[in-house]
Amino acid sequence: MEQLRTVAATRYVTPLREGGSLPGLVEADDLGMYVLKFRGAGQGPKALVAEAIVGELARRLGFRVPDIVLVDLDPTLAKNEPDQEVQELLAKSGGVNLGLDYLPGAFDFNPVVRDPGPELASRLLWLDALVLNVDRSWRNPNLLLWHRDVWLIDHGAALYFHHGWSPTWKPAATYRFTAEDHVMLPAAGPITPLDVPADMITEVLTLVPDSWLAADGTPPTEARDRYTRYFAARLANAPQWTEALEAARAARV
Ligand SMILES: Nc1ncnc2c1ncn2[C@@H]1O[C@H](COP(=O)(O)OP(=O)(O)O)[C@@H](O)[C@H]1O
Ligand SMILES: [Mg+2]
């Protein structure tokens, strides 16, 4: 079965201070450079779960996403780190972390400077509504322009319902998602659902390490089952929320 590649971090290079999660640039034993999302960061391992699920789903739906790898981190890497905050983060993040292939020389993507085209814009808006990604606003688009193409990053805040799981959790009938601030709203063409087969969801969920899924005490099979139920319910409701998205878009034009 397909799995995410695993590498070992060999050197912490520098923090990427942008949002709150303090990702860092690391070098790994395959000589690649990766943007590391730490399991010990404030948002916890669930941010890594969301990052993996949404990134791999987006890739399978035809979006460009940097390669995602699992990064083994030896917490003793912290010893050489002068910055106290970084040192603590490294020390707390021993084990499996998530890495994104570093795209050297990428720019933050701004749709005002470069038109993404109506098709990419509406597909991305729909994807973010599917996965409840609230982190794609015009203030903070989390899109990179690299080799003239648009690349998706930073999906750790998606699937936010998993932060409030109880043993009796069921997917809600509806979820809050506001398109108003979405970076692609002004550029989007008519919005229609993408085809997301159930086995695509299953495949993506098998890529997520058990240790991240189980970090809150939920057995990994149960956690995968909950995400599966979420996607089944959200996709079954797609006609309704797609219509609401389309109404928001049409009102903008
Ligand atoms: N794969 C990547 N290649 C190049 N730069 C990246 C990559 N991933 C993130 N960055 C840069 O690091 C910044 C912070 O990363 P991001 O994933 O958005 O984390 P957060 O917003 O939680 O701090 C991004 O805004 C971007 O400038
Ligand atoms: Mg970000």
UniProtKB/TrEMBL annotation:
InterPro entries: HipA_2
Organism field: Kibdelosporangium lantanae
A GO MF label: kinase activity
Residues of the HipA-like kinase domain: 16-159
Keywords of this entry: Kinase, Transferase
The protein, known as: HipA family kinase
